[in-house]
Amino acid sequence: MREVLAQRLRTCRKERQFTQREISIYCDITEKAYQNYEVGRQEPKLSIIMRIAEFYKVSIDYLVGLTDDPAPYPRKK
């Protein structure tokens, strides 16, 4: 999972032309922490994966490699 997550985080960020700093600010983590996720040194906690998925507008399943469909699930109201 770690390798898939790292690759998908890099891909999502580059496709949307964000910096690691911008994403780390949104997720309320350090830039170094986000860098570690992108290179596969660390795995984020579920709460951080949820924020990242929300930021990129993709599903958590997509980020961790359970599906190749990035479409997010409908949100509960």
Protein model, in words:
The structure is a single chain. With 77 residues, the chain is mainly alpha-helical. The chain has a single domain (2-64), classed as 434 Repressor (Amino-terminal Domain) (Orthogonal Bundle). The protein is built from 5 helices and no strands. The protein has helices spanning 2-16, 20-27, 31-39, 46-56, 60-64. Helix 2 (20-27) packs across helix 3. The mean pLDDT is 94.
Low-confidence runs:
none
Tally of DSSP β-strands:
0
Give the class from helix and strand content and strand pairing: mainly alpha
The overall average pLDDT, rounded, is: 94
Oligomer: single chain
Count of DSSP H/I helices: 5
Give me the CATH superfamily: lambda repressor-like DNA-binding domains
Determine the N-to-C terminus distance: 30 Å
Helix/strand order, N-terminal first: HHHHH
Strand portion: under 5%
CA gyration radius, whole angstroms: 11 Å
Please give the domain count.
Answer: 1
Predict the CATH topology. Answer: 434 Repressor (Amino-terminal Domain)
From the structure above, extract its key features:
77 residues, mainly alpha
